[in-house]
Amino acid sequence: MADRTIWRFNKRPEGSNLDSSFALANEEIPALNQGEILIRNHYIGMDAGTRNWLKAREDGFAPPLPLGAAMVGILIGTIEASEHPDYHAGQLVRAWGQWSNYSIVIPEEATVHVLNQDIDDIRHYLGLLGPTGLTAFFGVTDVGKAKKGETFVVSAAGGATGSVAGQIARIIGCKTIGIAGTQEKLDWIVSDLGFDHGINYKTENVEDQLRKTCPEGIDVYFDNVAGPILDAVLANIAVHGRVALSGMMENYNKEEPVPGPYQFDMLLMRRATITGFLSRDFFPRMEESDTQIRTWIDQNLISMRFDETEGIENAPTVYKNLFEGKNIGKSIIKI
Ligand SMILES: NC(=O)c1ccc[n+]([C@@H]2O[C@H](COP(=O)([O-])OP(=O)(O)OC[C@H]3O[C@@H](n4cnc5c(N)ncnc54)[C@H](OP(=O)(O)O)[C@@H]3O)[C@@H](O)[C@H]2O)c1
Is residue 63 part of a domain? Predict the structure, then answer.
């Protein structure tokens, strides 16, 4: 068998020290066991939420990734060999696999999805027609229950999940405000994606800017970051407002307990709702989001920007960039 280049998880990161957590290895591809498939990876999504798996905590939404294991990511690839009766060589699939040029997975454990390649740019199976589209779609419509005429705010708005969530809210007919950390991201979401306003959380007072741009109050907040930005939103939440809690970028690299949000009592004052959600809850309904998003793509209403880097050797650096805000749109590695 040929060799593969693979990133192994060797050390639990402390804070933002992600660089030394992974080690690149050259390994012979092992023979497949019964029930396994070998995938030649084409693209691997860099997903900030996987940071949770690098922690030692046992009470997270997934068990800690064991030391020595290959780093995991959602990828698009072609099956090279199969020892599973339901899969065969040549099929294009999306799966949870390894940061490598080849992945070996057990389909029942890796959420393998056979793709019928009915779209020109297969990267969209990681983006709009993949986990990003799914999270954004159900986070906005099902969890946030955004309705036409309402005011919608999203954080990490220049990233993958946030940029799509904001577009979906705009299509539904919400007034849409995005919060991000660079002027370039704000220019993009307002000029190209049609957000009504952008707020730079690094240079502006978010609470004041939200008060100015949302005097009627915020009906739906799609929260990708938690921390002080959640406080700024809660101070401006509308009566019966909803917070769809997607992720916590502000907290992922923290070792110590995190303070606040100090404005938590506003949930009571405004009878607002905060609901955590995981995209996996919506996997069974993926056809619903896919069908709707495909219609919006055909109508030129929604788009996905890819932040693509070539070479598996760059995976840890590109992954770290997510936590430093250096990506715009969906960060992926091309193999
Ligand atoms: N619930 C689910 O099932 C689910 C599924 C997918 C993703 N998510 C969540 O969605 C969020 C975004 O993930 P993604 O993979 O789409 O990554 P992404 O948004 O493409 O990249 C992460 C972005 O977060 C911003 N950020 C980093 N640290 C921050 C901080 N301390 N405060 C504010 N913003 C910060 C950075 O942009 P700036 O320049 O703006 O700082 C960065 O570009 C994550 O919280 C993730 O866990 C949840």
Answer: yes
